[in-house]
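Hey, quick one: can you model this chain's 3D structure?
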Amino acid sequence: VLFVMDARPKANALANQAIGAGFESSDNYKDCRIIFLGIDNIHVMRDSLNKLRELCCSQSYSDKWLGLLESTQWIQHIRTILSSSNKIAKRMMKNSSVHVHCSDGWDRTAQLSSIVQILLDPYYRTIRGIEALIKKDWLAFGHMFAQRQGHYI
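Sure thing. Here's the predicted structure for all 153 residues.
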């Protein structure tokens, strides 16, 4: 069985399909199972990170701080990415074939693939391993580091 691990929420994938964008159908592939991981897109993540940044840079520390932290949804996003990576790693440890993808492959796909490799191979838990991951799974696939960080060339 091939497991297609679609990083997007299913609703997002269906919306993409409605405008003619890519969407996998298990009907098109023998012995294929599609699993939606429910990771939000870069716009939702950026909004959440900005809220976290604002909270951490604010001068007011009150007994409501943890509630305000929760309202940023940042911890939930990180939890979703890590639990999705764990799901993928567990399938691979059972010798299942896994294909990871999302709408463009620059953010969620690279995040998941990198974390899974860190989970499964101790080499990628070293400085040289992290360097290798950045080169092969981020730079080689055209990740837009400058744009994602707000630095344009």
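One thing worth noting: The two ends are 44 Å apart (CA to CA).
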